[in-house]
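Lay summary. Proteins are chains of building blocks that fold into shapes, and those shapes determine what they do. In this project we predict the shape from the chain. Here is one chain we studied, written as its sequence of building blocks.
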Amino acid sequence: MHGSCNGLICLSNEWTDTIYLWNPSLGKLKTLPNSPDIESRIIYSDLDSYSICLAFGFHPKVNAYRVVKIWCLVYKIIKPYKYQLLIDVYSLSTDSWRRIDVAPSCYLFNQNPAIVNGVAYWVAIKETWEGSCYLLLVRFEMGDEVFEEVMLLDGVKNCCPKIAILGERESLYLFIFYHLDKCWDIWTMECGKTSCWTKRFTGNFHDTPAKLLGLRKRGELLLQNHEGHMLSCNIET
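And here is the predicted shape, written in a compact code that computers can read:
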């Protein structure tokens, strides 16, 4: 499953070459047309690895459902970049795909993004001309179909903590776990304010949180550890 919105659920097969939109309340399943041929744009012998990310969401401003398919390429030799994104966007209203030609040179970590108000967010890594790497967020505006890089906090982007993101209500939640200190922080960023982070919680866990599950109405953040046990913390109090 690659996301749900307004009763529609986005699904795919294991290789993501067949994508579906399912409306369980109506019992209808739509198979999307094939995305544009990617083979002509990739020389596999030049690649060290690749992965595929899918995002599904609804943008209220343009009243449109979109599916975003991203190929994340990692090259063996930097020429002129190590990472590259190839993007195709499907629109339900036209039942067709189109190519996005302008994208940041980075690698996306989380295959399923956090989505807030029709904007998809991924945790990414980018390489500088000097060869060093740093972490950042990449956002894709499904209405304008434009990418934007979102800088992380100075103490986070140049180290290697575990990072997860969650989109709930009008905010993006950033979860940071510091392996050496055995502590974790939660920061929030209001939708549209891409440089304004607010620290909401700091905790210490003997059980390392592995996954963000969601946010309940009373401000309780639900997490899951590596053994599958549920954890809860209230970030409003």
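What the prediction tells us: The helical segments are 154-157.
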